[in-house]
Amino acid sequence: xxxxxxxxxxxxxxxxxxxxxxxxxxLGYEVxxxxxxxxxxxxxxxxxxxxxxxxxxxDKESFGIILGGTGQGEAMCANKTKGVRAxxxxxxxxxxxxxxxxxxxxxxxxxxxxxxxEHNDANIISISTRFVxxxxxxxxxxxxxxxxxxxxxxxxxxxxxx
Length: 162
Known about the structure:
The protein is α/β, with parallel strands linked by helices. Helices cover about 40% and strands about 15% of the residues. Helix 2 (about 45-60) crosses helix 3.
């Protein structure tokens, strides 16, 4: 089983730390770096995100980790590849003044990771380097990798529609 990882300059430092972390995590994944391979502030995230997305789309047992300033552009880029279902992770709490529309504080983005895996079979996690600490990123990735797709018929039916 493989994990493909990629980022532009905004996530370069964190990517290098995550590669080391994943290698000692002991989950049995081979980590394959799709770049950036050097810090270049003029590079463009599609050049590194697209190869991650293409590999994940080809290998149904693999996962992807992409990093970027907000994670949004990276997820949009990845989701253009048929077979990719990328989610965005912003950190421990969503930045909505810590209160959701209903007025409670149950907007735990770690729960969003679980639901994206269980209900949507998300296969790539896009991490916002501007809002996420290294420890949050590590926890989010471990949760992402350990959470299984529910295999429920209704979720399979929905995924097959896109």
